Amino acid sequence: MKTAAYGVQNATSPVAPMSIDRREPGPNDVLIDIEYCGICHSDIHQARNEWGGGSLYPMVPGHEIVGRVRQVGPQVSKFKPGQLVGVGCMVDSCRHCEACDEGEEQYCDHTVFTYNAKDPKHGGLTFGGYAERITVDEHFVVSVPENLDTKAVAPLLCAGITLYSPLKHWQVQPGQKVGIIGLGGLGHMGVKLAAAMGAHVVMITTSASKAADATKLGAHEVLISTQAEDLAKHASSFDLIIDTVPVAHDLNPYIGLLKRDKTIVLVGPLDPVDVHGANLITQRRHVAGSLIGGIAETQEMLDFCGKHNIVSDVEMIDANYINDAYERMLKSDVKYRFVIDINSMKA
Amino acid sequence: MKTAAYGVQNATSPVAPMSIDRREPGPNDVLIDIEYCGICHSDIHQARNEWGGGSLYPMVPGHEIVGRVRQVGPQVSKFKPGQLVGVGCMVDSCRHCEACDEGEEQYCDHTVFTYNAKDPKHGGLTFGGYAERITVDEHFVVSVPENLDTKAVAPLLCAGITLYSPLKHWQVQPGQKVGIIGLGGLGHMGVKLAAAMGAHVVMITTSASKAADATKLGAHEVLISTQAEDLAKHASSFDLIIDTVPVAHDLNPYIGLLKRDKTIVLVGPLDPVDVHGANLITQRRHVAGSLIGGIAETQEMLDFCGKHNIVSDVEMIDANYINDAYERMLKSDVKYRFVIDINSMKA
């Protein structure tokens, strides 16, 4: 079916209206009327082909999708028309490798991303959530708690799960000291989620100006990482640190904050980071990376957010504002996530 | 008591004979007649003050010590005169912190190193194993199996435990694929120990010329890390990799060799290493560091080596050859560890 969407024709064109073809729901598919779609920083990188030349055009970005089921295929068992659902970064995987078997589809070698990917099963490219509708295999659709503010749920599907997954994988317990480096789209979710898990949450930032906001979001302390006395005060005291900073930086001041045998998890840095071996060796510390979460874990995260009434802090925009939103995101001028009201596309 | 030793007076002097004062054994002390002492690369760095200016002179290096008990204090329960014993990198720690309580004295904040350290309990500096005798609290003395080639045991006390500890901490199981990067004093122990644990051992080296030696030591395969096809063939296949290379290098080709959730452990690199976040994030991989082992684990390692008849490959030297040995070590011209015959000091 023809579906209205917003996307780019090539790496230099602005985000603009276009029409795409969605498949009619097959036996296991769910057809969703999209209501809201969050804007992730990776949307900009992919739209502008900033990740090593791999972008596929035309492209409809968007992998923080919330909407209502319009229609389901005959074999769909988990969803019914009218139900509030979400779709995150993946729409398929091989389904039979070790990662898939363990519910870690995000680490499957054949993950099909929600947009900017070839769809080996159905042919063509995948198109994301800057669109009126999307058709997705039910395995990759999650149920959204009705008690939450729907429009602010969208960023949970990427930013939320990217922080929830490492907090769970590294088994954060009540009373443990957890640091979140960087207060942006990812970081603000980390503060909310870690606090709801009962951790003692420390916002680690270079900007003293962010202290008040961090505290409002639930941080118990703020560590200004450019101040030597702050670093010294917190040395060797953290059970887990999650680093959401997206650009290359020196990891060594942060590594020294970890207790023996504890881990700093990179969820933002795709660029090189400097690591001094001695900082790891002297206390058997770890640097690890983590990528979104599996589908079952994404559902668990949404249920957790429903129970604790956690959503993202969002700024709502119409579809025709996406290009402006991109420019503002590049200046970190958003608290903390732009969400597109997809109704604005239908006018 | 006055004890003959070899040491340095300052950062630029050669290793030369000197006399040092050892304490008479106190209630918990063991007085050891040293028979053999291995030469560790760190001896050179410390003798020459290459680690940030912290060296303390005069200095008697040496922390790979094997000898026989000459005398014990009245409260010593674990050792008797005549017994074959070893001393490694530590001679004391606080004894009551979390690390000490867990038998991980190497991670205590108050570890007293075997040489080049202040001794807060007894005053003065600690002096190492390039000497006829040493007095050590029994807690930091280990028993050496009599069935092993004694002179080749010495390097187990540092090089051996440095590799054994991470192999045990990361729970290497029979059949698992373990990579050892670098074939030197540390690396050759890694190959022997991992093979004895039943792992499938891969020597990872830049030098094709080392393949035959690695195989002789017990490696099942050799991966030449400068060859792209070798890296591709082994991608995402390792359960554990231990990196013994002591100089700054790019870690990224090695990180890609790890399976999901697996770890590359730095035991050699004290300098910065480059880490690309994306290589960690895409498969939730880890980079960690590890430092020698605790005393109980060092005893366990020696017992394991006794059972499996594992010792270091050594080149024996007289004490007056130490300066030449240092120069050859800087050219990697030793297979794989120099050991000083302390008898040569007594002549």
Helix content of chain A: 25-40%
**Main interface by residue count:** A-B, 34 and 34 residues
User: Looking at the chains present, what oligomeric state does this protein adopt?
Assistant: homodimer
Question: In the CATH hierarchy, what is the architecture of the largest domain in chain A at level 2?
Answer: Alpha-Beta Complex
Specify the CATH homologous superfamily of the largest domain in chain A: Medium-chain alcohol dehydrogenases, catalytic domain
| Proportion of residues in β-strands of chain A | 25-35%
Distance between the termini of chain A: 19 Å
Counting DSSP H or I runs of 4 or more residues, the number of helices of chain A is: 12
Number of E-type strands of chain A: 19
Largest sheet of chain A: 7 strands, mixed
Overall number of structural domains of chain A: 2
Q: Overall pLDDT of chain A, averaged?
A: 96
Class of the largest domain in chain A in CATH?
A: Alpha Beta
Radius of gyration computed on alpha carbons of chain A: 20 Å
Classify the fold: give the CATH topology of the largest domain in chain A: Quinone Oxidoreductase, Chain A, domain 1
Identify the overall geometry of chain A. Answer: globular
Briefly note the structural class of the backbone of chain A: alpha/beta
Unreliable runs of chain A: none
